[in-house]
C-alpha cells in the first residue's frame, strides 16, 4: 500500500466533511476529558481516604455529673476512677488499638474555647460540664466496630463516636459526583461514536465512485477501508490531544496556580502531576482505537468488502 495515497485520502476526507470532523473532535475531546477527570477524581478520593483515615480517632466519651441527670446512658451516675482505670486497661489490652490519649474536662474545655470561643454557648459553659474522653488511634480505621462493641453501653461511658463516619459522608458525596461524571462521559461517548460512524459513512458515500473503481481493479477490502479508518483515527487522536491538554491545564490552574487550591485548602492532600501524566497515554490510546474500531465495523457493513 502506498503511504502517500493513504495520507492524501485522509486529507481529502477530513476537508470534505470539515463540519462533521470538527464535531467528532469536540465530542471525543469532551468525552475523554470527562473520562480522564473521573479517573483522577477516583485517585483523589483514594488519596484523601489514605490521608484522612490515617488521622481519624475513635472517641470514648465518659459520663459527667450533668449527663447523669439528663442522659439515659449515664443513669448510674458519673464515671468513677475505678471505671476509668478499667476502661484504660481494656484499651491497652486490645490489639486493634495503636495509641490512647486521655482528655480531661479542663483540657476539653480549653480545646472547646479555642475552636468555638466566638459561640454564644461558650460563655455559659464551665469545665465541669465538659466530658472526659479517651481519644483512640486505631491500627486499622475500619476496626471501629470493635471499640464500639466493647464500650458502648458500659457503665460510665456516655457514647462512642467514630470520626471516620463523618469522612465517609464526604467520600460518598465525592463518589456520587464521580459516578455522575461517568454517566455524562458515557453519554458523550455514545454521541462521539454515532458521529464517527455517520462521518465515515458520509465520507464513504461521497467517494463511492472511487471505491467502486478500486473494487473493479481488484483492490483488497483493507486497502479500500484503510483511508476511512485512519481518517476517523486521526480525528479521534486530535480530540484525545485536546482532552489531554484540557486535563493538564485544569490541573495547573485549579490546583497549582489560578485558583491555587493547594495553597488555599491545606487540609486536602491533592493528587500530584504523576497521577495526571500516567492517565494521558490511556486517553490517547483510547482516542486512537475507539474511532478506528467504530469506523472498521461501520465500513464492513456499509462497503460490504
What does this structure look like?
This protein has a four-stranded antiparallel sheet. The model has no long low-confidence stretch (mean pLDDT 80). It has helices spanning 3-16, 18-53, 65-70, 81-93, 105-116, 144-151, 163-206, 208-216, 221-256, 261-264, 273-303, and strands spanning 58-62, 97-103, 133-138, 157-162. With 305 residues, it is of the alpha+beta class. The chain has eleven helices and four strands, in the order H-H-E-H-H-E-H-E-H-E-H-H-H-H-H.
Query: Structural class of the secondary elements?
Result: alpha+beta
Q: Spans with pLDDT under 50 lasting ≥5 residues?
A: none
Largest sheet, strands/sense/barrel: 4 strands, antiparallel
* H/E element sequence: HHEHHEHEHEHHHHH
User: Can you list the strand order of the major beta sheet?
Assistant: 2-3-1-4
First-to-last CA distance: 17 Å
Number of strands: 4
- Mean pLDDT equals 80
Strand content: 5-15%
Radius of gyration: 32 Å
Shape from CA axes? elongated
- Helix proportion range: 55-70%
Number of helices: 11
What is the strand and helix layout of this fold?
Blueprint: H1 3-16, H2 18-53, E1 58-62, H3 65-70, H4 81-93, E2 97-103, H5 105-116, E3 133-138, H6 144-151, E4 157-162, H7 163-206, H8 208-216, H9 221-256, H10 261-264, H11 273-303
Antiparallel strand pairs: 1-3, 1-4, 2-3
Helix pairs in contact: 1-9, 2-7, 2-9, 2-11, 7-9, 7-11, 9-11
